[in-house]
Amino acid sequence: xxxxxxxxxxxxxxxxxxxxxxxxxxxxxxxxxxxxxxxxxxxxxxxxxxxxxxxxxxxxxxxxxxxxxxxxxxxxxxxxxxxxxxxxxxxxxxxxxxxxxxxxxxxxxxxxxxxxxxxxxxxxxxxxxxxxxxxxxxxxxxxxxxxxxxxxxxxxxxxxxxxxxxxxxxxxxxxxxxxxxxxxxxxxxxxxxxxxxxxxxxxxxxxxxxxxxxxxxxxxxxxxxxxxxxxxxxxxxxxxxxxxxxxxxxxxxxxxxxxxxxxxxxxxxxxxxxxxxxxxxxxxxxxxxxxxxxxxxxxxxxxxxxxxxxxxxxxxxxxxxxxxxxxxxxxxxxxxxxxxxxxxxxxxxxxxxxxxxxxxxxxxxxxxxxxxxxxxxxxxxxxxxxxxxxxxxxxxxxxxxxxxxxxxxxxxxxxxxxxxxxxxxxxxxxxxxxxxxxxxxxxxxxxxxxxxxxxxxxxxxxxxxxxxxxxxxxxxxxxxxxx
Length: 483
What we know:
Blueprint: H1 3-8, E1 10-11, E2 14-15, E3 19-29, E4 57-58, H2 60-76, H3 84-90, E5 104-106, E6 109-110, E7 120-127, E8 134-144, E9 150-159, H4 165-180, E10 197-208, H5 212-219, H6 237-244, E11 259-269, E12 275-276, E13 286-288, E14 290-291, E15 294-297, H7 299-317, H8 324-332, E16 349-351, E17 354-355, E18 360-361, E19 365-369, E20 376-385, E21 387-388, E22 391-399, H9 405-417, E23 433-442, E24 448-453, E25 456-459, H10 461-476
Parallel strand pairs: 13-20
Antiparallel strand pairs: 1-2, 3-9, 3-10, 4-6, 5-9, 7-8, 11-22, 11-23, 12-13, 14-15, 15-17, 16-22, 18-21, 19-20, 23-24, 24-25
């Protein structure tokens, strides 16, 4: 048997199967998620649904793609060439016509909405960088699944070479662990907080296909639920696999991801109002966005505010070099303008979507004042429902940072934490003012904390020189394209 045949487990076009693993778990959406379907007359971006029952559908191809990308990031780093171990688990890339077949089978999954909840509608707009207002004809809406939606998942792994079983199980466990720890996101706008998940209730079973009894057990198992409920559930995929087959030895896989992670604890003063469509006849004219029955700070809104402020900072700092737009597009991704052909790039800054805790939603009434008479404009009474005195925790992750980018991120963070940025609408009347503290992790270095008191940022003395040097790099570095 050739070396290629021995890796793929094929001999004369016959696939050898020594063992077959079945691993199941449950994915729960932590934030709203859009799994795109076909175009619809009423909605710009509808959800993908099962054609038979009409329930939300998570295709196995989408899940497999997200898992493959996660494993490739861990083993090779962000935006790197795939290492051989990725193809060993997921099969050859589409361009490799002589590559091996994937030993991993990822099944489709039908979703279950939370009790009493329905599919949500999200509005989106593109902002004008100069004014911070919405651009003309750039509004769209899309369907999203609410937080709390559950997808049961199932994967099967075919073992064709007993000598590689331990390696493949370690790769599979590391890949599925991305679901358990929330490192993998699903659907569209993942870099803007949509599609965040958590996974639990992991179960695994191993069928020994080298024996007659093992084959019979596999063939007589329930096709829809091959693992019964009496099999113990575990918090991680690795524990589930060890429970199914204790002979597997755990290997420590290298994590080559480079990133800057910021966790900011924020509080709102003056209320926040990210407008969302009304769902009842007696709803206010403008209501703060709700997802999964709770007020949220959407990553899309925060990203738009951060991008506009980052562009303003870059235009001031990089004025003489005239490359501000290049820095912004390299971090936040390129914007596709009509009739302009540019090479698109995805955002390397991932911004979470978070639930707003504490506080209260209040429904004040407002009137429009005539600017000349200072009287009330007839027919211009309206009411709003902002969320007041809330708190939230935001996570920013800059992947594969280049020299100077940390400095821009720090200047941006300073404005956010000191209350100089307004998020959402009605900023001119004091809505959306944010203050808080942040903890920053630069790669594998020790965490460094930034605290805010009133209008002044206070930084520990031993961190000040380090942060200043990162900011100086943003002033002096030459703009270069990411590898």
